[in-house]
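for the writeup, i need someone to sanity check this before i put it in the appendix. the sequnce is what the collaborator sent (i think, or maybe the updated version? ugh). structure was predicted straight from it, no edits. if anything looks off just tell me and ill rerun, i have time this weekend
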Amino acid sequence: MTRLGSWIEPFPEGIYIKPADAWVDPSRPSPRALVTHGHSDHARGGHGQVWATPETLAIMACRYGPQEGGRPVAYGETVHLGNVALTFVPAGHVLGSAQIVIEHNDERVVVSGDYKRRADPTCAPFEPVPCDIFITEATFGLPVFRHPETASEIDRLLLRLHENPDRCVLVGAYALGKAQRVIMELRCRGHQDPIYIHGALQRLCDLYREQGVALGDLRPATDAKKEELKGKIVIAPPGALNDRWSRRLPDPITAMASGWMRIRQRARQRNVELPLILSDHADWDELTRTIVEIAPREVWITHGREDALKHWCALHQIKARELHLVGREDEDD
């Protein structure tokens, strides 16, 4: 009897689809790459042909240069590589992020990439797809990781801002996805004041606008005078929170938007005064609920706490295996 999914093979550098001679999110240049989203632990330059959503191809062009072999695939569209059918459906992670539904030999495999189940005003919501094999991430694959409601975290940020009108709140947020989401979540909570951004965020914020995400009034923090920044929100890459750039700000309240802020030691290590638990990944309850909802015959687990999620699957009589892919760092936590 042929093993389930025998035509798809995980390697440390990516997932190989043998009958299509293509790789999913390869960490090395590949003649044929299927890319779930634009973060650097899943996308890179140097591929021959690249199948991805139009938004992901635009992000890759912005970050890695022109993608001459780009083949845009819209959500819900099915393309064929030989006798393999590929359909891209929303993953809810960042703009353009997709799960790749791969069908061959009457079997369906879903590669989720990174995903979240929370509503996000900057990207299409996750769509569960029943399948035989579900390849899931496990970034926050421990029961300790249960993310609070997004609105409550944004309200904490706004309250601290209003209580300190002579200071600014400096929020560390990754350039792709997290920064734009923080901005839009603030807008959704009624904060329409100008938001000031570090120059490293400008290109991707411009790209989001080009893709139809209305970010409101954004201004370069570097051009603003110290007095102008009092009582304002400034967003910068995490690496800028404690460097020379931040010293020109008016007594900043240092915040960090990340699912890792659940761990107090991480907040202390970064000298974060206001930890904001805001993640673009599924938490423990969402990971397990998604598996139950999709009801796969097998679960293959990629980066993160693979062992804990594999143990949960065993307790629920679901066959599971760890893939041990390399190079999966949480740029977008």
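The chain has two domains: 8-144+281-322, 150-276. The mean pLDDT is 95.
thx in advance!!
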